[in-house]
Specification:
- With 141 residues, this protein is mainly alpha-helical.
- It has 5 helices and 4 strands; from the N terminus they run H-E-H-H-E-H-E-H-E.
- The protein folds into 2 domains: 99 residues, no CATH class; 35 residues, no CATH class.
- 42% of the residues lie in helices and 7% in strands.
- The protein has a two-stranded parallel sheet with strand order 1-2.
- It starts with 5 loop residues before the first helix and ends with a strand.
């Protein structure tokens, strides 16, 4: 696994000993060398438990293979990196970046009547369906 690499551990030790900012990006696609987050955390904990607690304190940014989500991952990484620079370091939260055409800025619409089936076995789904109905006004339950 990734955390059993001597080079990986050397980089982590150097990062933490020098108190450098770090960012965890998770490749989820196993066909592209990724692993489940649970496996990565277990591997890290088995070789360096003191690092695992710190390294996975915050949720990692997941690297997606769908174009819109890749752009979102890149935006999140850019915001983090920008926040670590001297000009933005003093801000409480990272500066917000926007990209023309990004999925979070698109106006989403449902063009026809949509029926949503809600299972009684799925707690919370009724709340989501009602939120969609209020937002788009074209749902049937």
């Amino acid at each position: 696994g990734y955390f059993f690499s001597r080079n990986c551990i050397r980089e982590l030790d150097s990062t933490f000993s020098q108190c450098k900012p770090y960012l965890v990006v998770h490749e989820a696609d196993e066909e592209r060398g990724g692993q489940s987050l649970e496996v990565l955390q277990a591997d890290c904990f088995s070789c360096r438990p003191e690092l695992a607690a710190v390294l996975f304190k915050e949720d990692p940014i997941t690297w997606h293979r769908v174009a819109d989500f890749q752009l979102l991952s890149l935006k999140m990484m850019s915001e983090f990196i920008l926040h670590a620079t001297p000009a933005f370091k003093t801000l409480k939260s990272p500066p917000r970046l926007y990209q023309r055409g990004e999925v979070l800025r698109k106006q989403l619409v449902l063009r026809s009547k949509t029926v949503v089936y809600v299972s009684a076995s799925n707690p919370g789904v009724l709340h989501i369906a009602l939120e969609l109905m209020n937002r788009f006004g074209v749902l049937g339950l």
